[in-house]
Amino acid sequence: MDFFLYYGCQGVTDSQDMPAENPTDPAQDGGNGGSQFQRDELQSLESSIPTRSIDADDVLKILKEFLRDFPKLRDEGPPREIQDVRDNSKDGEYWEALTRIIPERTLKLWDALGAALLEYHKVLTRRSELFSEATRLQRQNS
């Protein structure tokens, strides 16, 4: 958010106009969490930033500038060491148990209901056909 406010107050017009370094950019501190100097500078910057809304046209430019310093944008998941430590010996049991999560009795009930609904649909379809035929015959008789 500080990055947005910093560049929003400068009235960003083009990414070439933006300075190469920004004290509020977390990507430029080398990932070490920032130094005390940077935190102090950030606090002084926050107090000097007037409250101003950011123009909608500048949002994309600010985001591109913010992401420019990130070498990779995707999360690659946990570190390789953590992935190797995971015990996957019970995975088969887990997936096998998931196949039986709905009781057999409930599955049979659902199958019976499905079959009954199909029969009911056939009856309603036939009734609709008969109703259309009766209407046609009434018009013919009149």
From TrEMBL:
Superkingdom field: Eukaryota
Region entry Disordered, spans: 14-48
GO annotation, cellular component aspect: axonemal dynein complex
InterPro entries to which the protein is assigned, alphabetical: DRC1/DRC2, DRC1_C
Location of the Dynein regulatory complex protein 1 C-terminal domain: 93-142
GO BP terms: axonemal dynein complex assembly; cilium-dependent cell motility; regulation of cilium movement
Protein name: DRC1 protein
Gene (UniProt): Drc1_1
